Amino acid sequence: MKPSTTLFIKKELEMTNQKFEITDIAHEKYPFLYRIRALRDIGTEVKAGDLGGFVEHEGNLSFEPGDDAWVYDDAIVAGDGCVEKNAAIRNQAVVCGHACVSREATLGENARAEDDAYIRGASMYGSARASGQSMILSSPDDPLCAPALYGQCCVYGKVIGDVHIRGQAVIVSNEEVCNRSLDVILIDGQSRTVLRNLERDVLRPRQIKQAEKEKKPKQRETVR
Length: 224
Description:
Blueprint: H1 5-13, E1 20-26, E2 34-38, E3 51-55, E4 70-71, E5 76-77, E6 82-83, E7 88-89, E8 94-95, E9 100-102, E10 106-107, E11 112-113, E12 118-120, E13 123-124, E14 129-130, E15 135-137, E16 148-149, E17 154-155, E18 158-161, E19 163-166, E20 170-171, E21 176-179, E22 184-188, E23 191-195, H2 210-214
Parallel strand pairs: 3-5, 4-7, 5-8, 6-9, 7-10, 8-11, 9-12, 10-13, 11-14, 12-15, 13-16, 14-17, 15-18, 16-19, 17-20, 18-21, 19-22
Antiparallel strand pairs: 1-2, 2-3, 22-23
C-alpha cells in the first residue's frame, strides 16, 4: 500500500532536520525551488557541505535518522512529492505532485514520477514516466527483482518484479504486469519477450537438504 504523503510530511516536520538545509540558490526556471546542502555525510557519495538538487520544502526529502535518500545534481522534488528510504534522484529527474519514491529506488536522466505514482526499489532512466495512480514495485519476495524503465515508456498501471520496459511502451491504467519468476520480462514498444538465462535449461541433481539426509525411515510396526 502506498504511504500517505501528507502523513510523511507531517512526521518529517515534527523532527529536527539535521540532514540538509535549503539554501537561497533558486532554480533558474522555477524560482520557487531551491538547492539543498548536506549538513552531514550521506551514504558514500555526499559529504557535509555538498550541494544537492532542488526542493520546494523540507517535506520533499526524508531526514529521518539513518535515511540516506538524496536529491543529486539538478534533479527536482516539488509539490507534495517525497523521496525517502535511501532512494536517489539524479541528473534532471523530477518527482512532483504527490508521487513517492522509496526503498532504494533510483530516478535518473530525465525520468519523471508525477501525480500519485509510487516507486519502490525500481530504476527509471531516459524519459521514462510514472503517472496517474501507477505503482512500480520491487518483488515482495526479493527486493533485487525490481522493474527497470528506459526510453520514453509510460506507466499508468502496476508493474511488479523483474520487468524491463523501454522504447515507447505504455502500461495503461488498471493493467498489471507482475513477474515473480526467475526470468526477465522485456516490454519494448508493443512487443513482449522473455529474457532467459541459458543456465536455467541445464538439468542438475536434486539438492538434498541436511535435515532430509538425517531423517531416518520410520520402522513398521509388527502386526500381531
